[in-house]
Amino acid sequence: SVNPDLASERQTASFSVEKLTALLDGGAEQTRIRRAVVEAIESDPVFSRENQYFQTQNERYETAVRKAVHLQKKMHEMGWTENGPEYKYIYRALSGDVAFLLHRIFMRSISVLGSDKQIAKWIPLATQHRLIGSYAQTELGHGTYLQGLETTAVFDTATQEFILNTPKISAMKWWPGDMGRSATHTVVFAQLYVHGKCYGIHPFIVQIRSLRDHSLCPGITAGDIGPKMNFEHIDNGYLLLKNVRIPRENMLSKFCEVQPDGTYVRHGSQKINYFTMTTVRISLISDEVLTPLMKACTIAIRYSVVRRQSKLKPGEQEAKILDYQTQQEKLLPQLAAAYAFHFINDYLQELFNRGYREIQRKNFDMLPELHALSSGFKAVITQHCTAGVEICLRACGGHGYSLLSGLPSLYTKILASCIYEGENTILLLQTARFLIKCFMAASAGQPVPPSVTYLAAVKHGKCPAKNKLDFLSPDIYTEAYQHVAVRLTSSTAAKVQDLIKSGVKKHDAWNQCTVQLVQAAKAHCHYIAVKNFAETVEKLEAKAGIQKIMKHLCDLFALHGIFSNTGAFLHDGYISAAQMDMVTASYLDLLAVIRKDAVPLVDAFDFTDKSLNSALGSYDGQVYQRLYEWAQKSPTNQMSPAYERYLKPLLHNALSKL
Amino acid sequence: SVNPDLASERQTASFSVEKLTALLDGGAEQTRIRRAVVEAIESDPVFSRENQYFQTQNERYETAVRKAVHLQKKMHEMGWTENGPEYKYIYRALSGDVAFLLHRIFMRSISVLGSDKQIAKWIPLATQHRLIGSYAQTELGHGTYLQGLETTAVFDTATQEFILNTPKISAMKWWPGDMGRSATHTVVFAQLYVHGKCYGIHPFIVQIRSLRDHSLCPGITAGDIGPKMNFEHIDNGYLLLKNVRIPRENMLSKFCEVQPDGTYVRHGSQKINYFTMTTVRISLISDEVLTPLMKACTIAIRYSVVRRQSKLKPGEQEAKILDYQTQQEKLLPQLAAAYAFHFINDYLQELFNRGYREIQRKNFDMLPELHALSSGFKAVITQHCTAGVEICLRACGGHGYSLLSGLPSLYTKILASCIYEGENTILLLQTARFLIKCFMAASAGQPVPPSVTYLAAVKHGKCPAKNKLDFLSPDIYTEAYQHVAVRLTSSTAAKVQDLIKSGVKKHDAWNQCTVQLVQAAKAHCHYIAVKNFAETVEKLEAKAGIQKIMKHLCDLFALHGIFSNTGAFLHDGYISAAQMDMVTASYLDLLAVIRKDAVPLVDAFDFTDKSLNSALGSYDGQVYQRLYEWAQKSPTNQMSPAYERYLKPLLHNALSKL
């Protein structure tokens, strides 16, 4: 039975939830396929996540390995293939709780960096799981700065081998997933030396564990790096190499090769390789970042309509906490952001598909823009969504703090996305570098890529809004975002130039502007996200019922951004103080409007109870019952030796006194 | 041996670390006592926290109970008493990792709410640990709104007993610490019914476990609520009562009593009781909030001078990451906040001591102001410090994400402080209610408490700063903060009034302004924090060496607040755009200045390596060595059954192919 406080929210939906779900999936057929995958995975007890919050790191790892092995069988049974339409739903259905994800990266790096001969040798073995691969790039001492990696690979002409070494502790490989306990092979990135000369970082296939008994190979020291904030199911590992010899053929040689006599040869262009790094940043957005935020919104919003606390009106029943303006102001902007980023993800995917087609035609012109967009949006979306999940967690009070709410795990996992695949500050500075370059070019009348042409058209006008309703016009707010992005880019570009003119060295000048450069990069991405949301809403004309609520969310996303960052818009008077009061009024009005559809809007994300794995977010809203039943199963409710050992001696002789 | 990159930071300190430590401790003698306690605790292996990051929730609980029992012995051995000068350092030295903290709350509630007879009976038993107490207030369905608690206590005149019941699932007690597995007794808050009439919430002493064998008493169902984001060492519990009978004497009756015939009698004033709730909020700031932020700053800043990554200047050595402006901008404002809040904590403690003296003289005039300040500062400081710890964690990149850095545990623990002892949004609205009331009174020419007299003096001037150095003048920035606090309070008061005048009901009008009321309350606290820091610096005249660096930190704290919230200052033009650029310039300049003393400034917090329990923050800065050695001890490096069970069958027959 559904909690009546939740049921009543669904009766008044202003739109068809099913139609919105289909829109998010990219069509009703996709929804059907997704649900079939979810059904198959969730009905299989091996994939259950019910005990997850009770398990130790060791238990989590073992479960993840078991699932990964079982998944192979399942895929075969179900007729699912890696190229089939079901594939992209499998990971989501498993909530990522599976081992051997690095095995895919191992395969991808061989496919991209290996010669045809290497691909022919290794890919079939990997596909059949006759080995388990990993990817060993990051070291204890180096993550961001790849050129600084310290592992060495010295070519020995006599034996036609590379000799790999970890020359000092900071050179130890650290973090590679699946490497701590599972992998038999890994791709090691090392400084290549031939005849004493260093040729920089290159990739080498290295076997690290015996295929016979899984013992470590000679010269290899490897293990697990220990407990982390999340990812208990992954055996992130360390690796020390001591005079490990591998055949010459194990250096991945699509782009560079060491010939038998030690001659170093470069082949073709590596640009496609940079493109791969760029697409990884985009591909993680959906599964690793948007899904967790959508789950967190679902949990927090459903909970906020079944939790009643205190009274809004004296003498009445206690109010649903979502009826408090402060609760709306916490949760509804996160909901709007989840939609905004879903649509920008569609936009980026499309752009990258186009980029890929161009690159295959040997046209690399789009690369700088794609790199800037993927860096900037990876940073902005991971940051925004991580903050959003945290807000959802806190908005559920004490119950949000229980692991059984599902929110702590969502938070501790999404947090990592701000760090991996490029630390966010570094990425934003890459976007900023592109922006400054394009701004200078545009100012000099040179052509620039499409996403930054707006930088050329610096307008010095004022916002034309006359009343609070004007701020519900996408033209008005999109223009405001554009104005801020241009202002921050141009003023920071000017600051860099002024510093250099005043005699400050170029690198120092850059460093002295980085705080502001980061702001400019964020403003650029925020502008594009708002603009894209507005354009998406416009295209929904045919879907009248959905268009209206999406328009509200778009307005909320835009106005929340202004409300939370008023200074950027007030600074040069583009928006006046009186107009800012209108923004605030419109923004607060919108909260009350969207609140009415809040539950249908999260229902449309279409998460099953099993995938939420939350005592607070279930579809039926029987929150308290579920918390109680679940808590009783906790291992902390088993007998503890603490009483006999410590409490009994302490509580001596108390009876007589009572 | 100390990492030379860390050692060099200490050689250039602009002040005496030892003198600053003494200042923070409140005198060199206090430093001496604190260090003696730390030495005694840390040299005792029972109190070791080294394995903490490897332990399960059950192991954490058992260790905490063991420590609590051992602590009794230790205190006796050392001659430490609960009233002695050492007491306040014990909890800090244990990093809070000990059981039976609720036992103290149990005792305090009896002391405050119990009759002399009840105190005489229970306090000696509790002091001698002949029982273990807890405090059962929060229920599954009610936390914030105490009037809504649903547990019932019905007086039975025939047997002179109260009959306690949990009438429905939401009425179950939920969260009380030490109750899930340890406590034998607890203070239960329940709705009192006599002859069918409800008299509201009252406290009752209830025995829940046998003193003979620790089994649950008749009618009691209790257990552990399961895994949480942190506090694994505490057995937060649930409690169901079914017709549990307790003698009439077990209702704590200092303020209210049920006489044998069922007559309900009130005694004296309960105001002192409200004061107790208020002091709890202040007392948690130091141990639960400031210490974690100070530890996080210590870890992140020490790490940031031994971590080198990428090059600032081409051709040179890789740079310490603290030399990047973006890293300074993450960490140094947190350091400044730690000092700012340390000093505001001193201010609040002093104010509360004065309040306590007044209250003992039956003068309750200070209560509303103390309530507003304790609520507001509890919220603002917990929020700010939680965000600060998260920033420190992220600023350490991947290594910050390892539990071995110490940062994840600091974060997951401090986060709870935003929720317990009053949810922050609720608390800020209480402060706001006080502000609005005082603003109206002040506007009508009535007297108001000292901390809000400034609300009466609404000035409409502009900020007089003429260049960036002017913004290093405490008068200039304190005035700006004051201006914003007055503006937000007065404009929100006006909005509430306008809504009511336009016909909106009072409670609706209030709800529609709560987002802005929260902003006003924050601005008020921020203003007082800045003003207090500036005044503290001024009083350091005699300590010239320390005064200078404290002045820098005060400036940074103030300017960071403006820089992060420019809109509030720009809104009505109090600070102009040109002046805001000066603020930015001064702020960024300050980062480079304070960066030079960053390590000495965290050294002054005087944390031992054992208390930090961090691979990144050790005094010697041997970061990589420590991470590696520690990781090797992780239980995840023991043999796993996963190979035999899952991997071996998968990796069949691979050998022949390689």
Q: For the record, what CATH class of the domain at 103-267 in chain A applies?
A: Mainly Beta
Largest interface, chains and sizes? A-B, 133 and 133 residues
The CATH topology of the domain at 103-267 in chain A turns out to be Butyryl-CoA Dehydrogenase, subunit A, domain 2
Largest β sheet strand count, sense and barrel closure of chain A: 6 strands, mixed
Shape of chain A from CA axes? Answer: globular
User: Pairing-aware structural class of the strands and helices of chain A?
Assistant: alpha+beta
The CATH homologous superfamily of the domain at 103-267 in chain A is named Butyryl-CoA Dehydrogenase, subunit A, domain 2
Number of helices of chain A: 23
| Average pLDDT level of chain A | 95
End-to-end distance of chain A, in Å? Answer: 47 Å
Which oligomeric state applies?
Answer: homodimer
Cα-atom radius of gyration of chain A: 28 Å
Helical amount among residues of chain A, as a percent range? 40-55%
Task: Please give the CATH architecture of the domain at 103-267 in chain A.
Answer: Beta Barrel
State the total count of DSSP E strands of chain A. Answer: 11
Q: Ranges of chain A with pLDDT <50 over ≥5 residues?
A: none
Active site (chains A, B): 421
Pathway (chains A, B): Lipid metabolism; peroxisomal fatty acid beta-oxidation
Organism (chains A, B): Gymnorhina tibicen (Australian magpie)
GO biological process, one term (chains A, B): lipid homeostasis
